[in-house]
From TrEMBL:
UniProt cross-references to SMART domains, sorted A to Z: L27
Ranges for domain L27: 6-61, 68-119
Organism whose genome encodes this protein: Perca fluviatilis
Family matches, as InterPro entries: L27_C (IPR014775), L27_dom (IPR004172), L27_dom_sf (IPR036892), MAGUK (IPR050716)
Signal peptide: none
Pfam families: L27
Protein name, entry field: L27 domain-containing protein
Cited SUPFAM superfamilies: L27 domain
Length: 157
């Protein structure tokens, strides 16, 4: 959000607080207070802000395909099956098979599937219930644990 937008939102919200404080200090009835608050210009401004936020949320770009790397492999397979591919097809195959493009497509698939966290192994079922609670910290790099839990026990530390 830009500074101008933040200032405008702050101004609307301070107007809300001022109007509510003023209505409370006048000691007017509930129906009249409700009518004044619902007809206040700041309420329309807040609703416009809300509509803009909802529209922004709807228009946020989302990936068209959740499986771009799989599609690239299909395309490369189709190109390999062609007896004499054109120069453009060979160039496309070369581009799609490059490690940078493969990494980019893999990243796109992760974003498309909202797959940001690694899948950690489950805790063992045979843990005694009377044992003190402890926090298990697992470092993972490229879906491989950096420390194998079954090799070390607490007594080694």
């Amino acid at each position: 959000m830009t500074q101008v937008m933040e200032d405008a939102v702050s101004e609307v919200l301070s107007s809300v607080v001022d109007d509510v404080n003023h209505a409370i200090s006048r000691n007017i009835g509930g129906a009249e207070l409700l009518h004044e608050l619902l007809s206040a210009p700041w309420l329309r401004a807040l609703l416009q802000i809300y509509e803009c936020l909802v529209e922004f949320e709807r228009s946020t770009p989302t990936p068209i395909l959740p499986y771009a790397s799989g599609l690239s492999h299909e395309i490369m397979s189709a190109i390999q099956k062609v007896h004499r591919p054109s120069a453009e097809a060979r160039e496309l195959y070369s581009l799609l098979s490059s490690p940078h493009i493969q990494a980019l497509l893999s990243s796109q698939d992760s974003v498309a599937q909202s797959d940001y966290d690694p899948v950690l192994p489950p805790l063992p079922d045979d843990m005694p219930e009377d044992e003190e609670a402890m926090r298990v910290i697992c470092l993972v790099k490229n879906n491989q644990p950096l420390v194998r839990r079954h090799l070390f026990s607490i007594s080694h530390f």
